[in-house]
Design goal:
Blueprint: H1 2-61, H2 63-72, E1 75-76, E2 79-84, E3 88-94, E4 102-111, E5 114-118, E6 124-127, E7 136-141, E8 160-168, E9 172-175, E10 181-182, E11 189-197, E12 209-210, E13 212-213, E14 220-226, E15 230-239, E16 243-249, E17 261-270, E18 275-283, H3 292-298
Parallel strand pairs: 11-12
Antiparallel strand pairs: 1-2, 2-3, 3-4, 4-17, 5-16, 6-15, 7-14, 7-16, 8-11, 8-15, 9-10, 9-14, 13-14, 17-18
Length: 304
């Protein structure tokens, strides 16, 4: 009888040991499977990200070719124009430098409008190189969040903005459909220099014209119509506060302004379904630093 009891106890102990060993084994196996899955996902994610990043770099290296596809509705390098509307055109290009098992596309959107927040001391730049006589556009700026005091409404200290038009030769323009203003300067290039604000800094400003009330959410707006001459670019510099700015062509069904920015979105997907996206923005016309304006204003070289 005692032998049977002992053998039963031994069997229970053996079963307990087996259960514990099995639980430990399953736990270790589960952890190993989880680690393997995580490692595989990380590797797949890195492959997709590398392909998407490579797609952006490849597109940037041949951006002029892609821009020509957008502008002429042609096909080059596998890229073709996808859509076109009143403010932008889009081209789709395949990612060609990806590793095996990864595919993707790069979408390049060319915007003819500019939306940008410009800090004090910095400059926003508009490309005017292909514009013609009679080209109209408007500039809106100043939102509630731009004010350093975060005050509500249109009585905030909206930034005053200085506008500098650079022309090849002589040129003229009208402001708010007013009297034409001629450029000044001698030599190859000339300039038109204007400034507008909403009269919130009357004691600290001279030669600053009042802007019109902007369309919500902007506080200020000014409209320009380019006249005769070869306009090249417009430089806009805010004073007192940063300025959220919007520049939009206002004539005809399509914006009369040339392309201002390219938004490049590269998306790559592995054969297991892991997808990664990389997005960058590039100015169509390389941005000149703010110090460049001092050369334009003085007409002389900068000397250290």
């Amino acid at each position: 009888m005692q032998g049977k009891v002992k053998s039963g106890q031994i069997l229970i102990l053996v079963l307990l040991v087996v259960v514990v060993a099995l639980a430990i084994g399953l736990s270790v196996a589960s952890r190993n499977l989880t680690n393997l899955k995580t490692s595989t996902q990380a590797e797949q994610s890195q492959r997709a990200f590398s392909a998407a990043e490579g797609g952006v770099e490849d597109t940037l290296s041949r951006l002029n070719t892609v821009a020509n596809v957008i502008n002429t509705n042609s096909v080059a390098g596998g890229c073709s124009r996808d859509t076109i509307d009143t403010t932008n055109s889009t081209a789709n290009c395949p990612i060609t430098n990806s590793s095996s098992g990864v595919s993707g596309t790069v979408q390049v959107k060319a915007a003819r409008t500019l939306q940008k927040t410009v800090e004090t001391g910095d400059v926003a730049q508009i490309n005017l190189a292909t514009t013609g006589n009679g080209t109209p556009f408007s500039v809106n700026w100043g939102q509630d969040q731009d004010s350093s005091s975060n005050c509500p409404g249109t009585n905030c200290e909206t930034a005053s903005v200085e506008f500098l038009f650079v022309c090849q030769g002589s040129c003229s323009l009208t402001v708010n459909n007013g009297t034409p203003i001629a450029s000044v300067g001698s030599g190859t290039y000339s300039q038109i220099r204007l400034a507008f604000g909403n009269n919130t800094h009357p004691g600290n400003e001279t030669s600053i014209s009042n802007c019109s009330s902007g369309a919500t959410p902007y506080h200020c707006t000014v409209s320009f119509t380019l006249g005769a001459g070869a306009f090249q670019l417009l430089r806009m510099k805010p004073f007192w506060n940063k300025a959220s700015m919007q520049v939009t062509g206002t004539g005809g069904p399509f914006s009369p302004l040339p392309v201002q920015t390219y938004q490049i979105t590269s998306t790559a997907t592995t054969d297991t379904g892991v997808s990664r996206k990389v997005q960058v923005s590039r100015d169509a016309l390389p941005q000149l630093p703010a110090v460049f304006d001092y050369v334009l204003y003085s007409g002389q070289d900068i000397v250290k």
